[in-house]
């Protein structure tokens, strides 16, 4: 054990704070494999814990991601339906524009 | 909610054979026990193996568990401590600490040589920590990994808060003086990802 003179004590404190900062940086929680946790739980308890989905448990980042996913899915479905209708119209299986064309020609004739 | 029951209630139910109650305790303490064992063994494989042994042993003997005012976590740490001690006795080989690089990923983009230097510093410090007595290693893990207060650590280690404070101070002094840690090195050392 080293002896410290009073004027050296400040330096001693600073060094311990620095050491604590280094320990704090090194000793951090490690990530466990999820498979390990669930497999061990299954072995011990018999069944895996059922995770209840709750909107309260979802963090804002994930909720935005879900919102974006839902929105883009809706847009894709809508575009798909439009494309199918347009395709069927082009083939002639459905006649969507006929009525519109008729009304437009009628109005032109009237004018 | 079942998961909101406290340790004592869960322990009482688990000791009567309620597996779901034991599952609650398992969920609560698996991370802490794994971290302790990981820092004592230094690798993921043995940490997983010993952690599963700790909980298997706890499950086997939970019916005989007697609540004497000591927290359940203290009992688990004691089992973990005994298993780690046996592991050290059985494994004469010296293992590098914390070389599971998959758990130590830098969050920033850095030059490889900087990462290497920091990794070396981290490994050196972990090696020094591993040479400390068991109780001091446990104290450091509880303090820095689990972020427990001195009072909580005291309950787990069956010591007074003052004794923990004193042990902590002596541990820091020992690390600084006896182990001669170079404190001129940069503070920022990359830890494992959470």
The helix fraction of chain A, in percent, is 55-70%
Low-pLDDT parts of chain B are 104-108, 186-194
How many strands appear in the DSSP assignment of chain A? 0
Mean pLDDT of chain B: 78
Shape of chain A: elongated
The quaternary structure here is heterodimer
The structure class of chain A reads: mainly alpha
Q: Count the beta strands of chain B.
A: 0
- The low-confidence parts of chain A are none
How large is the radius of gyration of chain A? Answer: 35 Å
Sheet of most strands of chain B: none
3D shape of chain B:
globular
What sequence of helices (H) and strands (E) makes up the elements of chain A? HHHH
| Main pleated-sheet profile of chain A | none
Q: Can you walk me through this structure?
A:
Chain A is an all-alpha fold. Helix content of chain A is 68%, strand content 0%. Chain B is globular. In chain B, 65% of the residues lie in helices and 0% in strands. In chain B, 32% of the residues are buried. The A-B interface holds A 1-2, 15-16, 18-33, 36-37, 40-41, 43-46, 49 and B 19-20, 22-23, 26-27, 30-31, 34-35, 38-39, 44, 47-48, 51-52, 55-56, 59, 103, 122, 125-126, 129, 140-141, 144-146, 172-173, 175-177, 181, 183, 185, 187-194.
